[in-house]
Write a structure and sequence with these properties.
Number of domains: 1
Shape: globular
Low-confidence stretches: none
Helix content: 40-55%
Mean pLDDT: 80
Largest sheet: none
Order of helices and strands: HHH
């Protein structure tokens, strides 16, 4: 098994991706998502996406929210900041 020093020799890059679809409802978009989604459930969703869409060795981080088309770049930047700031705080 590699030690942490060897792991840092490889430069990892994050790339945004989208799974595009529609949901159809008579509710407002913000009232359509479950609020009680647990961290464990979110992790299961991430693992399914990772397993069935990406090749081995790729990590996936997701955040479920509705983003108007003109705000996609801002939303992706916010997600990236959250992911990478958490990694820095944890010492990863």
């Amino acid at each position: 098994m590699e030690n942490k020093e060897e792991q840092f020799d490889v430069e990892l890059k994050a790339y945004p991706f989208a799974i595009v679809g529609f949901f159809i409802t008579d509710k407002e978009p913000q009232n359509s998502f479950r609020e009680e989604l647990s961290a464990e459930e979110m992790e299961k969703i991430q693992e399914l996406i990772k397993k069935y869409i990406f090749k081995e060795g790729v990590e996936v981080v997701i955040a479920p929210f509705v983003v108007p088309p003109d705000q996609v770049n801002d939303a992706l930047n916010q997600l990236a900041n959250q992911v990478f700031n958490n990694d820095l705080e944890e010492g990863n």
